[in-house]
Amino acid sequence: MEDARLDSELRLDSFEICWSEAVHRLDELTVRIYEPLFDHISAIASRASLYAGTIPLAAIDASGSAAQRNLGNLLHTRLGSVLCVSLEPAQCVNVVAACTAFVMRLIEQGRRLHTSEHLEELVRDRDPSLELAATWYDAFRRETNSAPVIILNIVGVERYVSAPLNDFLHSILLWARKYGERNVENSIADILGVQKERATLPIVPCIYNTTPSIALPRQQTPSGIPAWPAQYLASSVLDMVDLVHCALPDKSVFWERVVCEFFISPPLMLGRSVFELMRRRFWQVEASYESIAQTIRLAYLMHFSTRPLSALYSMPSYAELSEYTPEFFAQMRLSLFGAYAEVNDGKVSLTDVPRSFMALADDDKALVESLSMHREALENHSARRESMLRAVSSLLQYADIPPPHAKQLSWSGFVSSSLEIEPPFSDWNSGRAGLNVQTPTTPSARHHAQLLKHITSGIAKERIPSLVSALNEHARSRFQVSEHVLQEIGDWISDEYNAVRDSAPTSLGASVWTFDYAEPLSVVLEGAARAGVLLALDAPSQMLASMCATLVSPSGQAELDSRADWPERETDNTEIHVLRNASNRLDGGDIPDVCRLYQLYRDTSKFINLADWFDAFVYTVEKAEKREQAQGAKRQRTAADIQHLQLRFSLGINELAYMGLLGRTGRKVDHLLRTVWDLTVDPLPTNTR
Predict the structure, then answer these.
(1) Cβ-contact 374, 506 below 8 angstroms
(2) pTM for the complete prediction?
(3) For residues 224 and 229, what is the distance between their CA atoms, to the nearest angstrom?
(4) Which of 14, 344, 363, 398 is the most buried (most CB within 10 A)?
């Protein structure tokens, strides 16, 4: 369709732009909900060097929040000139390893703020130690004329071994105190308003617990203070710190204020099927920033790698597309005019085509230049949808929703239903959604529109002015506070909700700037597809019989009323009966070579010898052939038969490797060739290196 190099460059550039915008948007929303925590840590850090004798330690409860592995980067982005050092459990196996990792991370973070030849010379060819860290920090402070606060992040404190962690923290606290006693200059001490011998290194350790902890007995902790830090920190550490408690927002807050907000205005519009897939994974598999970002990135990658028209995402000029073939422009027209095509008596005709589109039927340049019009239509649709959802958000905030509808009228449900994209630009199936996807919090769009007309009746009249002021400018310009304002607000929001769903983008715009295919994402992200492949390889006959029974005989419960008689019981036409008959017919039949090889590989895995694997494969083939032969006479194999078996063996192994079921082996290729196929491998010349 087009020049491969040009197309790949356009798609790759578009993907990188789109993904960088998505990461920026996700980080922006995440920082917004973590703003109170960052302000708290910033206040602690600003007073860190003023603590005399004790050092502030922030105990952050993250047990009910979404997992966040890039907290250090977010802290650095929000607080600016701080040195954020994050350690992993594998780096804290002992105090020496932990201190070494701390010093290396500290110097690495310092390079992000300032670097010079003198600083590099200090650390070159020297073992990372706390003494080196003190020397480096002194030089860094003099060159930058500042004393940046060191924030030490221990995320998931319950995953660390207690003894090495406490030894490491105790060493760091002693190091910070000794540094203040020996190395803080008089001028800095005077500025800070403390005595020289009482100043300490500005460091704030932050420990996070990511799983709920068992409560300690009441007498061990003062009233109102969380008990979990005492479960992980030794008394020698607690005596040296001033414990400060704070908590991360709940995961439901992260879902509504980060994920839902992202879907309202993303760089590339994602539809309802992707939203529902992400919601299921977030609440049932992994509630984390990384799982959300992974799904979004995979959706964007799939869009730009599988859809040719995604090359138009950045709206290239006609000159940039001059090397594209007529087939590419034909696909653009097919996407544009396909929405107006009707089939009558086997003939395709176009109806209700806008006049402005007719000029694009033959002019490639005009077709490319019209992309701005389709992009603008999509942006107008997105802006209108966002305005409607903001109004719904204000309404939900001020409405006293009765319990039967509280779960159904959730912010997440409204966002989900507003993302529906019409086929063929989506694999969302509203018919099957009620069976295996839809939950009480995700009713249909039609149901939402009906409920919106009734919830305003429960709003208290004294809250009407606050509600009206919270709505957008369009709503405030249309309504005045009166006795009929509640009905007017409800009617307007309901009408606007339906209008947004009707104002879909053009088909060409949807082809380029939307993605809503959850099925291929699910295959990559979830384990059901792999489990199905393994089951088919392990028991091909049973899998085929089950598929046959499901297709031949649907369940009678799904077809008949519960009070009706079941003719299946009389005719032996039940699904179990069909399954048994199919199994009997398939039992004893030959199975594919790839299934033979997998069954031999299953129990031995990587420890199997390739030659033994081939011998076992030949044995199973001979056994199957004997069972098929009437007389069971053993036939002598010829050289051609052996070569044929070797070919079947190689093809089967290649299929398993292609499916990702075989790992790498450390054995050399020439050894395998000599062992299995008895081939001579030409040695390399003696002078070859």
Answers:
(1) yes
(2) 0.65
(3) 13
(4) 14
Same domain for 484 and 567, yes or no, is no
Q: Name the one residue in this structure whose structure tokens are 């509280």.
A: 406
Task: Please give the pLDDT value at position 169.
Answer: 93
- Could you read off the pLDDT of 48-61 as tens digits, one per residue? 655 556 788 889 88
Kindly state whether residues 232 and 268 are assigned to the same domain. Answer: no
Q: What range defines the domain where residue 499 resides? A: 255-286+374-518
Please give the angle made by the CA atoms of 654, 655 and 659, to the nearest 5 degrees: 115
| End-to-end CA separation in angstroms for the chain | 45
Token pair for 324: 């594209």
Residue 425 burial (C-beta neighbours within 10 Å; 0-12, 13-18, 19+): buried
Q: Which residues share a beta bridge with 57?
A: 243
Per residue in 407-462, pLDDT tens? 555 778 888 888 887 777 777 765 444 434 444 445 566 666 666 666 665 566 66
Helical spans, DSSP H, in 239-314: 251-254, 260-264, 272-284, 289-306
Domain count, the chain: 4
Find out whether 292 and 29 touch, Cβ atoms under 8 Å: no
Compare 507 and 480 and report the one with higher pLDDT.
507
Report how many helices (DSSP H) and strands (DSSP E) the chain contains, helices first: 35, 9
The dihedral sign for the CA sequence 110, 116, 119, 125 = positive
What are the b/e assignments for 161-194, b being 16+ CB within 10 Å? eeebbbbbbbbbbebbbebbeeebeeebbeebeb
Dihedral (CA of 107, 111, 113, 118) sign: positive
476's tokens? 């405030």
Task: Find where tokens 């009233």 sit.
Answer: 223
Q: What number of CA atoms fall less than 13 Å from residue 535's CA on the CB side?
A: 12
Pairing between strand 347-350 and 341-344?
antiparallel
**What is the crossing angle of helices 289-306 and 518-525, to 10°?**
120
Longest distance between any two alpha carbons in the chain, whole Å: 104
Considering the domain architecture, whether residues 240 and 278 belong to the same structural domain is answered as no
604 HSE (CA, 13 A, CB side): 12
In angstroms, the CA 162 to CA 168 distance is 10
Contacts of 85 (CB under 8 A, 6+ apart): 72, 102, 105, 106, 109, 150, 151, 152, 153
- What are the structure tokens assigned to 638, written together? 């010829």
Task: Could you list the beta-strand ranges (E) of 197-260.
Answer: 203-209, 241-247
Q: Are residues 228 and 263 in the same domain?
A: no
The yes-or-no verdict on residue 502 having pLDDT over 50 is yes
Q: Positive or negative, the Cα torsion across 466, 472, 474, 475?
A: negative
Nearest to 153 by CA among 212, 69, 87, 227: 87
